[in-house]
Amino acid sequence: MGKALEGVRILDFTHVQSGPTCTQLLAWFGADVIKVERPGVGDITRGQLQDIPKVDSLYFTMLNHNKRSITIDSKNKKGLEILERLVKTCDVLVENFAPGALDRMGLTWERIQELNPRMIYASVKGFGPGPYEDCKVYENVAQCTGGSASTTGFRDGPPLVTGAQIGDSGTGLHLALGIVTALFHRTHSGKGQRVTCAMQDSVLNLARVKMRDQQRLTHGPLTEYSQYGEGIPFGDAVPRAGNDSGGGQPGRILKCKGWETDPNAYIYFITQAPVWEAICDVIGEPEWKTHPDYAKPPARLPRLNQIFARIEQWTMTKTKFEAMEILNKYDIPCGPILSMKELAEDKSLLATGTMVEVDHPTRGKYLSVGNPVKLSASPSDVRRSPLLGEHTEEILRDVLGYTAEEVTELKTVGATEVRKKEAAE
Ligand SMILES: CC(C)(COP(=O)(O)OP(=O)(O)OC[C@H]1O[C@@H](n2cnc3c(N)ncnc32)[C@H](O)[C@@H]1OP(=O)(O)O)[C@@H](O)C(=O)NCCC(=O)NCCS
Prior knowledge:
By secondary structure, this protein is of the alpha/beta class. α6 crosses α8 and α7 (168-189) crosses α8 (199-206). The strands form three sheets. Strands 3-2-1-4-5-6 form a six-stranded parallel β-sheet, sandwiched between helices. A three-stranded antiparallel β-sheet has the order 7-8-9, covered by helices on one side. The chain has helices at residues 18-28, 58-61, 77-89, 101-105, 109-115, 139-145, 168-189, 199-206, 208-216, 226-229, 276-283, 297-300, 304-315, 320-329, 340-344, 347-352, 392-399, 404-412, 420-424, and strands spanning 9-13, 32-37, 67-71, 92-95, 120-125, 194-198, 251-255, 266-270, 334-336, 355-360, 364-369. Coenzyme A binds at residues 16-19, 36, 38, 72-75, 96-98, 101, 104-105, 124-126, 136-138, 168.
C-alpha cells in the first residue's frame, strides 16, 4: 500500500507551530518534506521549553515528525542558489515568516513562478490584506482577534483563550487543505497557485457558530444561553456563554464524585430534548416528565440552574466514568472531562495511533499525538523529527545533484553551515 501523498515534494520553510503543523500532516500522508533551517540555529522551537538540556524540545519534536532537515543560510548568495534549485524540484513551498520576509530573501511569487510555474506557494500570515496585514502574530493574538476570546469564558469574567491551539494548529490545518486542493487543481490546470491562510480568518471560521449567534441576536435574545433563563438582558454583541452548549441544547459541566480533590472530576451533560424522559428517570425525578414546569424545553429554559443543580446532585454520586456508562445506555449526550494524563494513558488511543510512542536518538522514547486523520487505503506512520541539518548532504547530493566537492564548497562559504570563523566569534 502506497502513502497518499507519495511523490509530492515539499519545501518546508516553516517555523514555530502553525506552518509545521501543516507540513507535518502532509509528511504523515507520505509527502517528502524538506525542512529548511538556519545553520547553527534551526527552528526556534528546538530550544524552547526544553525539558532535557541540549535536546530538541518536545515542542519541536511533536510538530516535525517525518521530515528531513537541511540547513541553508538564505541570506548567503550560494544559499539562495540552493533554495532556488529546491524551488525548481519541489511541488509546494510552505512558509510562515513575518510578512515580506520571503520577498526580502528574493523569493517573490513572481520569481518562484519564473523558476517553477507548477509550484504551489502556501503561506500563513496573521492577518489578510487590511490595516493589520504587516503585523507579526502568535496564537493568542489570533484567538483574540478572530472572535474566539470574546465568546469564551463566563459572562461576568474577562475574555479567555482556549488550550486548543486554534490559531496556530487550526490555521495549519486550513493551509493543508488549501495545499491539497491546489495540488488537485494542478492535475488538470498544470499550474501552481498561491495559497494563503490568515490566522484571524481561520479562528473566525472555527468560531462560525458565534457569528451565527451575532446575527440571531438582532432578531431577539439567544434563548439557549443561560443568561436568557436568568433574565439577564443581552447587549449588542454575542456574550460569553460559560459552558453552555453551542448547538441549542442546554448543556453544563457538572461535578462528579471526587471533585473536591480532583480538578477534572467533572462531566459535560446535555439535556437533549429527545432524551428528557430518560434523564428524569436516571436522576430520580420521574414526575418532571409530565410536570408543566419541566416537560417541554421552553418551560425548562428559565429553570436551567435549578435543573442542572438537581442533575449535579446525581452526578456527584458517580465517578465521571460511571456516569458516562449509565448515561450512554440511554443515549444521553455526555463526556467526561479527561485530563492530559488520562489521555496519555488511554490504551485505545495508542491502539489507533492517535497517540504514539516515538524513539529519538538524543531524547529517547517520548509520547506524541499521531495523525488524527485515518485513510483506509493509505497507511501513515509517525517517524521521529530530524536533528538540525541531519539531511543536508543527502538532499544536496540526491535531490539537487551537487557533487561531493560542491557540497564541501557550500559548507566552506557558509551557505549550509555557520562559517568556522563566524561560529568562533
Ligand atoms: C511567528 C512570527 C511572529 C515570528 O517572528 P520572528 O521570530 O521575528 O521571525 P520572522 O518571521 O520575522 O523571520 C525572522 C528573520 O529570519 C530570517 N530567516 C529565516 N530563515 C532563515 C534562513 N534559513 N537563513 C537566513 N535567514 C533566515 C528571515 O528572512 C527574517 O529575516 P528579515 O526580517 O531580515 O527578513 C512571524 O514569523 C510571523 O508573524 N509569522 C506569520 C504568522 C505565524 O505563522 N504566526 C504563528 C507562528 S506559530
